[in-house]
Design a protein that fits this description.
With 66 residues, this protein is mainly alpha-helical. The chain is 50% helix and 0% strand. It has helices at 3-20, 26-40. Helix 1 (3-20) packs antiparallel against helix 2 (26-40).
Amino acid sequence: MSEEFRQRFITFTQRMVALALRCGNEESTKLFLILPFLNFLGYDDRNPDESVLNTTLTSRKNTRIV
């Protein structure tokens, strides 16, 4: 592992740790942690041939919050 990559990775992870505290839901986690991580790894998150967002819609009609 090159020293340049090691430094980029350390900087990236420090930023992600700081942002993780502010991610309060699934959508913000995806936007601020997952997508930047995919970009860091070299994937294009805007290209459907490289990354596909997996979303499942659920009905909350019969959901009870206890």
